[in-house]
Amino acid sequence: MDRKGKGQPITSWTIHMIFRDFLGKRAGLIKALTTDYEKFRQQCDPQKPYMCLYGCPDETWELKEPPDVPHELPEPNIGINFARDGMPEKEWLAHIAIHSDAWLYSYAFYIAIRAGLDAETRQQLFNMINSSPTIYEIVSETVKMPAKEDTSSESNKDKSSS
User: Fold this and answer.
1) Which residues pair with 64 in a beta bridge?
2) pTM of model > 0.90
């Protein structure tokens, strides 16, 4: 299903797989809205069809038309390119960051629910996710950009889990 899931059905994903997927997608979105901002902005041509910004588990990003995905999967905000020239740049960037955060959270918890994680484990996932600043906080510079998070190692595992 997802590149990070390596073809495993989402019903078998663990909390740590979901969290690594979240961190990878988040890193890709942060890159699009910070270090790759000019490239991202140029690709958001209002003359193009509806575009969505996707974070990928491998810490990259893609701006593309929404694909044909199963309707049950949460999707990023559609049509971000249309608002590019219609609002102040900082507001447009904040708008994309907020919607990217919402997409990441909804996607992670959709997978958690489909994987059958119980309430306690979902709360643990929530706490793991909230230990990092939001994309909006980073883009609006209300917090400093964190040091690069390791999305591939076991260092992200919560030591209290069993």
Assistant:
1) 52
2) no
